[in-house]
Every structure is written in C-alpha cells, then in structure tokens.
Amino acid sequence: MADNENIPQVAPPSGPTPEPKPAAVAEAAQSTENTPKENNHDSNRSNTTPSSSKPAGGSTRGDDKPHKRKHTGFGAAKGEVPDKREQVAQNREAKRRRIIEGENGGHSYMSITFPPEEIAAEQRRPKRKVAVLIGYAGTGYHGIQINHKERTIEGDLFAAFVKAGAISKVNADDPKKSSLVRCARTDKGVHAAGNVLSLKLIVEDPDIVEKINSHLPDQIRVWGIQRTSNGFSCYQACDSRWYEYLMPSYSLLPPHPKSFLGKKIIESAKEKGVYDEYMSRLDDVKDFWEEVEKNDIKPILDRLDPSIKPEVLRKLYASVDQVLTDETEPTQDNEGMAQDVEMKDASEQSTAAQDGKPEAAKADSDTKMEGTSASDKLKDTKMEDAKAESKSKQDSAFTVQKSKDSKSKSDKDKELTPVELALREIKAAYVAAKRRYRVTPVRIQRLQEALNQYLGTRNFHNYTVMKAFKDASAKRHIKSFQVNPNPIQIRDTEWLSLKVHGQSFMMHQIRKMVAMAVMVVRCGAPLDIINQSYGPRRISIPKAPGLGLMLERPMFTEYNKKAVTIGREPIDFAKYEDKIKAFKDEHIYRRMFELEEKENSFHLFFNQVDNYRTDYFLWVTAGGLEASHERSERTERVPKALQAELGDDADGVEERGD
C-alpha cells in the first residue's frame, strides 16, 4: 500500500463514505496473480485495475500487463470488454432462430429441441472424437451437407445419432456442438459407397452402430465408428478421393445431323477445310443416324395418314430447333415445346422401369479400387433374378400407386391427338435406337485418350463455378482417370464405367470433366481443346447428369501411418467390403439403371445441349474456343434454359473435400 502514498488526494463526495478502493484493488491484483496462466484471459476482463491505482510515475514494465485493457486508444469501447465467444454464440443463435422461425416456418433439419426438464434429467456421458464411415444413395436428397431447409444425408444421420443416444439432448439443437465435419461434400442426387464424418459422439454402447442404423432409411448406412486422435478432422486428413461415373455408351453417339450443334459441326468443318479430318474421328458412327432414319423412322412416317404427315414433320423438326431469346427462355412452336416430356413418356412405351425410389435389387460387382469397374461382372441373368426378387417385394401401397399411374397415363393417352401420338412413337423409336447401340473399342480408346488430358496438375477454373483463372484454388491434381474397356449390358442399355482418382474436386468438376471429354469424342473435336480449356479464356462446359456419379471412397494414407503410432485404428473401408458391395448393388447401381430407363436422363441432357441454338458450346466445332461465347464476368447472366446444364444453378452443395 506504500505506493499509494504519492497519489494526490481527492476530496470525497458528500454522502456515505465508500469502501477504500486500494484494498479492493490489491485483493483483485493478488487474485489475478494466483490464477493459472491459461485462465488469465477471462480474469483480466473482470478485474481490470482502475487507473487511479497506478503508481504516480507510471507503471513499471511488466507489472501492469495483467491490468491492461485489451482495447485502448481512440474509438476504443468504454467499460468492460465483451466476451467474443459469447458474442459469436449469441449471433449464431439469433441467426439460427431467424431461419427456423422466420424463413422455415419453425421447422429445421439441423436443430432438434427438447423440453428443459428432459435435458436436465438426462444423464451426462462423455463424448469421444470418432470417424464415422458411411455409405448412401443420394436420390431424393439435397446433397450431404446439413442445412435447415432441405432434407440432406447429414440431416438424417444427425437425427439418427440423437435418437440412438450418440448425441445428447443438450447438444441436439446444433451440429456444431458436436464438431461435425464431413470428408467430401457431394452434390444433390450424388451417391457414395464410402464417405467419412468426424465428430464427437457418445460411443460407450457396444451396439451403437446397429442402433443408429435402426433409425436410418435403407439407402443410408453407417459401416462403422472408429476412435481417432482428439485433433482429427476427416476434411483435413483426407489425402485423395476415388469417384466412379457410370453412363450409357450411347452418350458417345454424335449429335443428330439435323440438330443445331450437328449442323454447326458440319458447316464449320467444311468452312475450315477439315471436313475429312472431322469425319475420320467419327468413322465408326458417322452412318448411325442415316441408318436409324431409314430403318426406324421412315417406316413410321410411311404409314401415317397423308393428312397429318406434313404437320408431324413440321412439329418434329420445330421441336428440334430451339432458340434462346433475350428473355432467356427457349422459344419453339408452342405445340412442340413438350419435347422433353414426350421423351419421358416415350420411354414408358418400351420399358417397365419402376418409380426410382429405394427398392431391393441385386447386381454382382467387383469393388477393387484400382482394378476393374465395380460393376464389371454384372450379368443379365443375375439382373433378371434381381428383377424378380424386387418385384416380389413390392407392397400393396406400390400396387395402388402403380394403378393410379396407369389410370393417369390412360387418361393422358385419351387426350392425345393423332399428331401427338405419332410424335411420341417417333421419339420413342429414336430412344430405342440409341439404347441398341453398342460401343466399339475404337470409341472407348478415343474416350481414354481424352481422359488422359486431365492427368497432372491443371487449372480447372472452367470446370466449376465462381472461380477465376488466377485463383490458385482452381488448380487441382488428377492422379488417374480410366474408362473400363469392358462395357456392361443392363437390359437394353450398354454402360461404361469411368473412375477418377484425385486429391480433391471442386463443385461440379467431375461432371464437367466427363461432359467435356464426351463432347470432344462424340463431336469429333481435336483433343487439344481440353488443354486449351485450362487457359484464361472462360468457356461454358455443361455438367453431365448427377445420376451417374458415385463417391467410391476417400483415402487417409498419411493419417493411417500416424494412427498406428498412437494406438488408433486406421480408417479403412476394406473390412466392410462385403456390406458395401451388397449396398452398391442394391441401392446405387440398380437405382442408376432404373432411373435412366424411366427418365432418359442422359438422352435428355445431350438432346438439350445439341438443340439449343446458342454459341455457348461451339468450341467443339472446327472454329475452336474462338467460335464459342466467352463469358466475360463470373456473374454474367446465363440463359435460364442453360443454367441446369452449365451448373450455374448451383445449390451450394459440392463434390469436394479440399
């Protein structure tokens, strides 16, 4: 207290005499000194020494550090410094409540609330950092990443964790309380045979995996839960990822010569004097459409009533020639605008595909990562057996729905005019002809040469959204990209399997890589177009249907080496191989095949790309990149009719894990 003798005395105010401040200050200072170093941060905020207690000659170096205010000087906050963590928590909670109560009508897929008395009565149990190995079929889900508004894979998993007791009720209102992190983010409708979540769970129950799975739909499975180091993050620890992409082999057929893109390819090749060169790259398929017109379409036209034949031809080719207007909508003859819908209806005439919801199925496959495709060994006989099994498992609800669908279809048939019925038959013939196509080794080799152009570290700014050429994060490393040389046949359709192994992938990157390679092959374009796409010119690349994409599994090579030294189990899907194989056959591959048969997803995708009268995709012509539209700004308005194909209708869910 001797130091205070030199402080000038100030007359006390009138009224009761306050308690002496110096004693309180000394007591606070002593308390601060006795507090462990790691706790000083919070203590300093509440025990700041008043300026009146400082020595007259100024504080000595070091002595005043425990008493300094964090914010001083001009514009500094007056009074006690607020707790930043508390501020963040309050802001987060306010935003969460605003979304749930205001924007989402009081419902949330990522916030499960319980009455205070239930939370208070719940027994507290320790949480452990774990890796959760999962698989899922993405059909019907808005990707994996949990959010308040849409149904997601993580949303269903989080709810199952809570129901199984792996997440306590007090932590059920916010996934961040459990430190939820996903390894790879998958887009809407994309499947995963293997993916990983890391978070803190209550895992003392030996049957916790079975309990969690009991609260999940069949199309989402937890393979296993493994203890990890406390600092483990599956997002950061993942070295690379394997994806598989399945597509019908007819995707490699060239555009119809009467489509807009087909005409432009021929015109440009003749104009540049490279027509023979382009045709040589289409040698094995250059006569495909001519034969279809002669053998499949002409017989239908010949038997039409002469009074409706001119109108059928007019509408058939009017529906092919779609224009993008300034209003960003495609314009056609009004009666021809239902082309896509008619194509889906047409498929119903030639297939009895089911509704695409999770149903039982079987398909023998090989799941080795670096060997042949996981679907290579599928056989028609086993597929037919699976078809019979699946049919026998349909419940009465499905039967009722099927009868309703049949009735609806029958009513719609009654409304169709003779011209519309003829158009449907013609378009069904085109789809059937495509499905009969069998790819040649020459076409597969050409596709492999295109995929080889992706190997190494490349600038993929044109293969995603909102990435500039100079953005360092647009550079990604591709380790391998292989097409299996042995296609498989499922019912009427032949399928190709592509497998890509890379360190990480951006939003839509894989689907755009597939589309670029396929477009180059089917249009006879030079392979160098792919290398030019890594340059600064911003071009438009469509994204192939999400239906065919599946995350095979992430890899944790470096972490697994470390895990052995710290007594933790390596993260390896191999021990669950049999279960994963059966799951892929039943819930992923069959879903892909049946949805394609029912919805003609790949046919519709390429049909739209070929028939919109726009210069967005003319980089496949002999004019190269200069012939196509260059999007000058990342925020440039894209024609609405092309947003889905380009991926500019981004839903915020990514195929990445970087």
From TrEMBL:
Catalysis performed (reactions): a uridine in tRNA = a pseudouridine in tRNA; a uridine in mRNA = a pseudouridine in mRNA; uridine in snRNA = pseudouridine in snRNA
Compositional bias ranges of the Basic and acidic residues kind: 35-44, 356-369, 376-394, 402-415, 629-639
Pfam families the UniProt entry points to: PseudoU_synth_1 (PF01416)
Sites where the protein binds substrate: Y243
GO biological process, any: mRNA processing
Domain Pseudouridine synthase I TruA alpha/beta residue range list: 450-554
Main location per the UniProt record: nucleus
Record keywords: Isomerase, mRNA processing, Nucleus, tRNA processing
Listed name of the protein: tRNA pseudouridine synthase 1
Organism from which the protein derives: Chaetomium thermophilum (strain DSM 1495 / CBS 144.50 / IMI 039719)
